[in-house]
Every structure is written in structure tokens, then in C-alpha cells.
Design a protein that fits this description.
Chain A is an alpha/beta fold and 242 residues long. Helices cover 36% and strands 10% of the residues of chain A.
Chain lengths: 242, 242
């Protein structure tokens, strides 16, 4: 690949959505720098998956620790809150669940933005999805649109792109763009697209409450959404997901 | 103080602005939970000051590590970039300096938002200032306004306050508000106000490049702005600031 490729920063969790996003960003011609946050998540197994996914697509990965268990308030960051299991499709679709992590996507996008600015990248990719998802407020298009505006006001890159006077009056910046290529896709569509792009989903993990050996519980919302997604795509799930 | 006081989250750096903001939030009747980010800043001495300031105003402080030296790109987070010294007033006012830390205020506000959401607090206080400041994009009112919108779209609290259906259709949230009581004040006005409110500025630190014993360099932009501020307020600076 030539060095004239633009650089993108990709938020990689180790799950299937962000693995697909990385493949899309590469297809679109970006050299990708991946960022994961080790936030003390119950399912830290996903960070090993993030390394494997990045390696499989010849991309750098930086894992940055930020201990959100110090804040808690979510089944994913507090042992005092159980991960809901065996919920019906109706229950899953019914509101914001206890696995919502306060301000997580905002924090992760903000950190990714810092990486992007230092790397001279104007493009951030994130695998949020507002169709087959868990009702998280920070997966909705209106959040992403608002974050993009804020990102351009928060940074040197954004200000300089906007022509606001900065450092000697030069405008060298590029307007920051947040790419959410999955936001309107069903889980089945995501999996079909990723399969076409050669994503190895055996490397990914979706379970919120995996066993010590990394095996999926099969009963949390994320396992159920994943299972329905592979069924919808007509593709077998290559992982140990039940 | 009664337990019916509302809780506010205050971003505390250990500098004079955030110390003043804490005093203002307390004056306004809030019980304050302070948050500092240990981001590997060159001037980590300020974190000791943050502890002293919080103690002096009977407030909790949580210091959360997030190592922004892994990202770099700023004189405050990279040893490869020198802190500018002895710049003229014109130079200081002339653009975004190398002490700008990419996306720092966005990251810090996002973390503070997570704390606020878990604490059931709708009020965040931050000591940004757009008058006597260093030209940072993330100190401007337009950034804060945009962040406030994003914060309300990012969180359960914001969504529920907005009446969007959430968990059983209940709306228990409170709209998140970002308070920036210093944003239109000069440094001299800030110091006069804080002095009236009993802030002990001897506990604060402003220098970007302090000596190992914590003594201020007296020549960085922040030391110069501080010195001019105390002169403008007609108040002696009680610290070791040169």
C-alpha cells in the first residue's frame, strides 16, 4: 500500500461490528490506526480479540487503559450489577438496559479524536448501529451528528479547517468526519457485508459475560443479537458463541 | 449541610480557575464531587494541588488516570515538545500554542459526564475561560454549547429528560447542564471573585513546567497570565509563582 493513503482512526472493540468497520475503512482506501479502550469491562476477553482482528487486517492497535469501574453504574463496569440474561426480543428492544455504560461512546470517540488529531487524520470510524442494537443512546445518528459538530469545535484541526484564525492565521486543518458505515444496517446485513470483505468473525467476541476461557454465555442481549444476526445472514457463526 | 443539596461534578485541575469554580458551585448550593484526570501532564504537581483545594472546600476528589502521553502531540504530554517561555502578550494572544492538548477538554468533560450520570447529578462545572486564556479551541463558548447538546444526546439522563422513550417509558432523567461561570471573566475578575469567596490560592498551581520541588517557572504562558491576573486584581499571589 502506498504512503499516500489517508489515515483513519478506527475504534475497535473486538466485537463483530467494529471488525466489519475496519474492513470497510480499508476497502475505502484508508490506512487504519485502531484504538481500543481497556475500561475494565467485564468482557475484557474482547481486547484479545481486538489485537487479533487488527493483526488480521494489517493495522496498528493502541490499547489505552481508562478504568471506568472507578465510575461504575453499568453491568459491564460494576460487579454489583448483573448482566441480564435470557431476555425476550421485546424486552431487548424495550429501553436502555443495565449494560449501558455512562458516556462510554462519548469518551471513546473523544480519545479517538485525540489520536486522530495527532496523527493528522480527519477521519474517524466507529461501529455504532441503531437497528439491531441494545437501545443505547450513544449509538443513535443524532448523537453522532452532534459529536461531529463538537469535535470540530474542540480541536485545532476543526478550528483551522473552519478558517478561524489560528497560529499565524494559517488554516492547515481538515474538517473531522465521523464515519458510521453500519448505522442503518441490520446485524444480518453487517455480517453479510463483512463476510464479503473477508472479515474473520472467528476472531471476534460479542458476549458481555464470557466464561474464564472466553466462551460466550449465549444468553446475554449481545449473544442473542449476534445469534439472530448470523441466522439472518444465513452464515454460520464460526466462534464458540452458543 | 443538608442532604437535600443537589450534587454537582466539578472538573478540578489544581489551577486557580477550577479552584474558583469549586467555590462558586458551593456558593450556589451544590454538594461537589470533584474529578481530576492524571493524564501524564508535565505539570503533575497540579494534582497535589487539586487534592489540597478539594480538602480545603470539604469536597470529594477522584483522580482518574488516562495516559495521554501515549497520544502526545502537546508540550504538556510529550517530552519532545518544549513549553514555550517568555512569549510576549501579543504572541500569547496569537493562536493555538503548542501547550494545546488534543481533545483534552472534550475527554475530561466526557469523563466528568460519566461521573455525573452515575451520581445522579445534572450539573457539571468547568473552569474554562475565553478572555485571558491561551487560545485553546476547547475553552470557547461555542465548544461548551455544542458539548452540552452532545452530552444530552449521549446519556441515559439526557435522553430520559428529553422524554424519549426509555426503560418502561419512564422519564426520570434531568437535563445535563454545563456551567462555565468564568467564561466571560478576565483573570483579574476571577481572582477577585475567588478571593471574596475565600479561595486559598496558595494551594493552587498554574505553571506548565514547574521545577521538581513544584516551584513555578515564571516564564510560561500560564505563569505570565497568572501574574498579570494577580496584578490586575490588585491581590498578591500567595504562591511560589515567580
Amino acid at each position: 500500500m502506498g504512503s499516500d493513503q489517508p489515515t483513519a482512526v478506527v475504534l475497535l472493540s473486538g466485537g463483530l461490528d467494529s471488525a466489519t468497520v475496519l474492513a470497510i475503512a480499508r476497502r475505502d482506501g484508508f490506512r487504519c490506526r485502531c484504538v481500543s479502550i481497556d475500561y475494565g469491562q467485564r468482557h475484557r476477553a474482547e481486547l484479545e480479540c481486538a489485537h487479533a482482528v487488527a493483526r488480521s487486517m494489517e493495522s496498528d492497535l493502541t490499547v489505552l487503559p481508562l478504568d471506568l469501574t472507578r465510575i461504575g453504574g453499568s453491568a459491564l463496569t460494576s460487579d454489583a450489577i448483573d448482566v441480564p440474561k435470557g431476555r425476550s426480543e421485546h424486552e431487548i428492544a424495550g429501553g436502555i438496559p443495565s449494560t449501558y455504560v455512562p458516556a462510554r461512546n462519548l469518551i471513546m470517540l473523544s480519545v479517538a479524536l485525540a489520536f486522530a488529531e495527532v496523527a493528522g487524520a480527519a477521519d474517524l470510524f466507529v461501529g455504532v448501529n441503531a437497528v439491531d442494537y441494545s437501545g443505547y443512546p450513544d449509538c443513535r445518528p443524532e448523537f453522532i451528528d452532534s459529536f461531529e459538530q463538537t469535535a470540530n469545535l474542540a480541536t485545532r484541526a476543526g478550528v483551522e479547517a473552519g478558517g478561524v484564525e489560528a497560529g499565524g492565521g494559517q488554516t492547515q486543518g481538515k474538517r473531522i468526519e465521523i464515519h458510521t458505515p453500519l448505522i442503518e444496517l441490520t446485524k444480518g446485513e453487517i455480517i453479510r457485508l463483512g463476510t464479503e470483505l473477508g472479515v474473520d468473525y472467528a476472531l471476534t467476541s460479542s458476549c458481555y459475560d464470557p466464561a474464564e476461557d472466553g466462551g460466550a454465555c449465549g444468553a446475554c442481549d449481545s449473544c442473542q443479537i449476534r445469534r439472530a444476526g448470523f441466522e439472518g445472514a444465513g452464515v454460520p457463526d464460526p466462534t464458540r458463541c452458543a
